[in-house]
Amino acid sequence: MEKFKTRNIWFVVLIGAVIFAVFTNEIGFEKFLILISGVNKPLILLAVFFNFLNLITFTITWRFLTTADVSLYKLFKFYMAGTFINNITPTFGTGGEPVKAMLLGKETGMSKAECFAGVVSQRMLNMFPFLTVGMLGIWFLFSKPREIQLATWEIVAMTFSIGLAFSVFGLIIYFYIRKDKLSSFVHSSIRFFAPFIGLVKKGFDHNAYAAAVEDSINSFHGGLQNIRHNKRSLANAVLFSYLGWIFDLLAIYVVFLSIPDSHIHISVLIITYTISMISGWMPLFLPGGLGIVDGTMAILFIYGGVPVETAVLATLLYRLASYWFNTILGAFYLSASLKPG
Known about the structure:
The protein has 341 residues and is an all-alpha fold. The chain is 81% helix and 0% strand. The protein is built from 13 helices and no strands. The protein has helices at residues 2-27, 29-37, 41-64, 72-88, 97-108, 112-143, 152-177, 179-200, 206-229, 231-258, 266-279, 292-303, 308-338.
């Protein structure tokens, strides 16, 4: 596991170096240095602060959706540890969710299924405000076609991405409502993969494993039901989830404010943000959407009328204030969480 994490970290660093080289080469390294020297540093710190508020509000959202008796600080540690895993593993941005559940269970003694129910609920709930923001971006896209121009393939890719997001969201809701369908799906999957698992795991007992999975499903679904019945907590969670996305958008906006003589229309900002974040879900082989999100964001800024130099610099600064800041902070908290005692 340790070798796997180290390998992933070096892979992420390599991709980051390539992105930096490509972006700075686009505008010229000397010009990049001139532009970066003119950036308002206090505003960059403000962007980092808004990103930090985004992390805090999402942690609070999780707290409203878990029955665990745990402090907000410890929950924040677990959230950041999971964020680190999400950012270094190419798993559709969900590789850190089991880690969050594991750490919470270790701290509180709750079952893994119950902890995972809270984690999944937080992820599900965060998708709803995000998708509504995305729909706002789509409305801007088609109501103000002169402000941002996309090629046909980009529109197709955007539509596919948003359709995929809604499909996944709908599937999760369906399994949430129909526990029997979730159970049937999981058991079918176990039967399908049993022969392959048997090749690498001697003595694999399909029936015993299926029974254990059924118990986990019951516990998991019970945790989801407990969350659903707490209407006040759900309402508060939705509110803080919206705040979280707003803080993230503010982080990008402040980045633009920090660059002299730069400006961006709110429609371009929202469209670029939502499409870029969705694009990061597609390439399963890239950790945290690294490279895809950066490239999509810069290109869409340029299509939206932002000068190339400003678009490239703004993208680099925003990803520094969010992705790289979150990854480093998450690595620190994961290390702290795994220490004995």
